[in-house]
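Q: Start with the shorter request: fold the first protein.
A: Done. Sequence, then structure:
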Amino acid sequence: MADFGYSCMVLALICAVWSVLALWRGSQTRTPELVRSGERAAITVGLLLTFCSLSLIRAFVTDDFSILYVAQNSNSTQPTIYKVTALWGGQAGSLLLWVWILSIYALVVTVQNRRRIRGLMPAVTGTLMTVVTFFLVLLQFVSNPFQPTGRAVVEGSGLNPLLQNPFMASHPPSLYMGYVGVAVPFAFAMAAMLTGRLDNEWIVTIRRWSLFAWFFLGIGILQGGYWAYVELGWGGYWAWDPVENASLMPWLTLTAFIHSVMIQEKKGMLKVWNLILIILTFCLSIFGTFITRSGVISSVHSFTKSTLGPWFAGFWIAIILVSAALLVLRLPRLKTENSIESMLSRESAFLFNNIAFLAICFTVFWGTVYPILSEALQGTRVSVGAPWFNQWIVPMGLGLIFITGVGPLIAWRRASGQNLRRNFTLPAAAALITAAALALLGARHMRALLAFALCAFVLATIALELYRGARARMRTASVGFLQGLAGLVGRNKRRYGGYLVHVGMVMIFVGITGSAAFQQEAVAHIRRGESFQLGPYRMQFVDTSSSHDPHKDVLSATLDVYRGDEKVSTLRPEKYFYRAMEQPTTEVAIYGMFHWPPNLADDLYTILVDADPAAGGYVFKAYLNPLVSWIWLGGLVVILGTNVAVLPEFDRQRAAARELSAREARTVAS
């Protein structure tokens, strides 16, 4: 199977190179046969890399330690799920996953558009195959996942214990689906510039692809946050780690693109800006892959130093130079059809929204690369931690939340004083009432009060928009309020799905604010039968137990949790010791949203820090994280809203079909 997988990888590289050459030559000479051959080669690459990846997965499942990568990242005692996820547990396998996903995207795009936008497709597929070729060259010559061990190996080293968590089965693939997914909009942007077809055709085509990549990138980030929350045992979910930042940056620029592209569709504006955003997003996805695999940064997520750094740096620079050259070449044909007439307009709100996203992205980028630059230029690595990021990004995030509330209700072109009073009096009142109520309840954290007030402002603007739309629908269709609301959403799924996404993002912001501003912690050195207090909860240490399986030893502590005199839960924080790796890990226990009844107000987060069974002394640490469950619930709302937004607009499709039929009938008649 190793030979078969390696052979598929070599054949995939040959087919990818042929695809690029055939598509380029076929489009230059207008030879359909060459174009078709290049597209078939691209489809073949997807199939070959599927066989290649499945053969490596089979090697993991069957404990084939004759392959070095398998021996380094698995052993025979690992559960099967972690043998499969070991595919992306190391450097070579994660690169294979990257290019495998990209090849499937290229296959789908090629088949999906085999009869559509034929003027763009050779350049689109050629761009995707160029990226595939780069990654296959790395796998072939720099980081081969099928490299033989070279000696008899009875047992493998095993997967990093920190990666042996159920969310590591979904977090990396989700993140890669987003990371790699931005290559598709980038390929269409490059094709539009290469061919000179700079109308809105490419924008309309990539709408769902952009949402698809944005969705999976966001879900991957949330899953990574939850993995850090439950696995690393530090009470938090986001530490401004360089690899966390690397996933956040393309999400920010892609979010800006999804917003600004609506202005191009409706008003013919921001054409150059949108091209810059999609190029920047793809460059940031490659940058994230570079810093993860080059070893230039230190992170729990990153791999050790390797020879991949210069390859990725060179590829990244080449993308920037080629994209910039094409953009400059096409500038005369990217003239804006309209201009912003007033700073008090929906167009300007979208523009300020983009500026806020880019400002946050630049701040994250600078904080991520500054230690690297400092070490390269001065020989001293300067640490940039969470306080620095929070100092700059929190104010920008508050401004972004405010713009999110203003954008949907402000008028196009120019807002009048009457429009502003009509649309923002109630939301402003909701914000003031929220701030006053929280202050009366004892909240004194000023940034938190402002954040909660702005969240109330945004939710009020969305509720007002839905109410007015449903009322109008009631009058025109003579239906009840709920029917009117359902009809309103059904007729414009993209718009109201977007509002639902905004609700989810507000919920996430509420969770971040509450858990960051009001977190409490306690450390207790106690014996059996003793207890300690944190906030309204009292935790009584009952006993410990131990267990063993072929893979690890487990020490579990039992804590009864009381709120007042009422017992509300029993928690079992644990310590694992993985025998093959001789490495301990801490497994937390949480009283929160996954208990029944769910506790959505706060998470009681407990850790068994140290144990001395002989002396009977144990050390526990506990955190009280208010509202943190709202982050994960907000993620579910974002999932729902995105799915609503990408549903087909059947009414519009039928109207477009009728218009097309009418045009064809007029053509026949004339």
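Q: Next, the second protein, separately.
A: Sequence, then structure:
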Amino acid sequence: MKNLLTIFIACFIVSCKAQAPIDEVNMRMGNDIAGNTVIGPRLPFGSSHPSPDTKNGGGDGYSFGQPVYGFSQMHLSGGGGNSHYGLFLISPQIGVAVVRDKHLSLVSNEVPTPYKYSAFLEKYKIQSAVVPTMHGAQYTFEFPQTDSASIVLDCGFSIPQSVMRDQSFGADSGSLTFDSDSTIVGSGIYSGGWLFAPYKVYFAMSISKKPSYKGVFADSVKFAGQTAVKTQKPGSSFGAWLGFRAKKNEAVIVSIAVSLKSIENAKKYLADELTGKTSVELEKTAMQAWEKQLSKINIKGGSAENRSVFYSCLMRTMITPANRTGDSPLWNDNTPYWDDQYCVWDTWRTSFPLMLLLNPDDYKTNIASFIKRQEVNHRVDDAFAAGIESMTVDVNFRQGGDDVTNIIVDGYVKGVEGINWNKAYEIVKSQADSMRWPSYRDNGIIYFGQFRNPASTQMEFCYNDYLASVMAKGLGNKADAEKYAQRAGNWEKLWNPDIEDEGFKGFIQNQDAQGNWVFYPPKTKDLNGPHFYEGSSWVYSYFVPHNHRRLIELCGGPDKYVQRLEHAFKNNLIDYSNEPSFLTIRTFIDAGRPDLCSFWVHHNLKNYSLKTYPGDEDSGAMSSWYVFSALGFFPNAGTDLYYLNAPLFPYAEVNLPNGKKLVIKAEDAGGESIYIKSAKLNGVPLNKAIINHSQLIKGGKLEFVLSPIPTNWGK
């Protein structure tokens, strides 16, 4: 009896013991319903991202329950609209089917983790697994007994052309050759995707088993025994296969590395990262990389679902951008090179502030990469993919303003060391003096009809200019500081005090070149113009991060502002889960109602679940919104301010880069207590719901007493 009791107690302790952060991650979050996240594994900020691709796979290449084409090596996680990549598809088969629909296979027993993906291919009875490296991946395929096992490499496959569009589409051009009996190298040029511009990618692939037969194919025509193929016909499909006999459950290892620079780099990555490494070693390395990252925040208590959502989100904040230092297609030195910025309009608000807090070295090298891009390309655009600046493809391409400025100034005002701020300011100044729309620079306004999203873009330009003025002043450039500060107030030129909607007066409206208001119903939502980007006048009339005080005055004062904002949220006039409104909830604090800030933050936290996000995950933007909000503090990016809200967990420990810890305690968190009753920072009572970065970075204890009913704290 005593032994049984001991066993019971031991089992109870084990069952109650919190899972390790890496075990809390749910890779299915965001790829079944909404989110567009990639189910495959990736190293933190890695260059490659291997993952299965399915029929009707959408932007991330994968749709649950759909048959699988195979596994491609690069993906865009969380993006909206057109996708990118999905290159060098590897398909293990019985026989050789080079027409894609002929080798589709349902999968079972999927086990996705941040460091490994495995599944059983039902059609061929092949157990498959993949582990990522920084620039490549290693696959393990266990075949049934057969005389006709094969590995097919499809180099014409890409997600924008092969999954989201006509199946006949392929590469613009490409070539490959057998470098040895079991090694293939090659490259392809691909169009479509996020920027619709052609880009070139290289690969090197090897298998552990010497093939008995091999060949190449082009446009579904097979050429057995040939060892090279080249195509210059746009839309071509091309590739190779390697065939062999397999014993039952025989493991065949396929290693592949990719490069945006050269075949030589791909071969180097294959040799350095994969050759001679076992899958067990690589899996351990990948697991340890994620354990190191996820352990930077330790949470306790709360529901099992909320913990899983938290760590799933935290993991997604470290997927992109991609660190491709040493593999830049734009320069030959080892200056930091960060690629796949999709796009900073999304990521400046929450993703980069979280990177600054948890991975400041990565933040610093991102700024160094911006500086180098300015030197080489003479610009640093809103989006940047596969070495291509977005506005070189379309001069009007802007989701918002010049938001690289916001990322730079966020670090500057927070006192990040180790950055050449004078060089970084050259980017800020270039954007202010050259990239703002000409009529905005000259007359303080973007006239309707001149630009794709004139009203929303002008609102962002004004914030860009405010931040430019702050940095110019800090660096002693008085003339620039005064010029940009004056321009920062030009958002008021779009404020029409006479427009009334839903019983409230005053909204952002466009003007034409003659100075006439261009009426547009404030509730009308644009996706991409003609007035706004991903929003309406109700959304953008609140986007003044540098002057909430003046905005509140224009809305009739604090009480009227609160009434108006509550009405907007209750009637779905503002999508507070989307980037333009990330900060809008926090303006309740500026109007003296931190209780309402906490209420609506927790309202939006419920829109995240183990399956889905409120919308596209947007390269870590949505995930980092959740991480900050769940911890109880949220950045006004570009400033050193954080807004406080009731945390989601009773205990959180943030390991700061300076070796200190920030402990966040809120005993009653996780239930109905969503309002702050009192708060202390390092034992000192707080009487407002705003703290500074300089306070937070010192570490210590941020303690909350919560309440299930609204309180007067912080008003």
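Q: Describe the second briefly.
A: The two ends are 60 Å apart (CA to CA). The chain has a mean pLDDT of 93.
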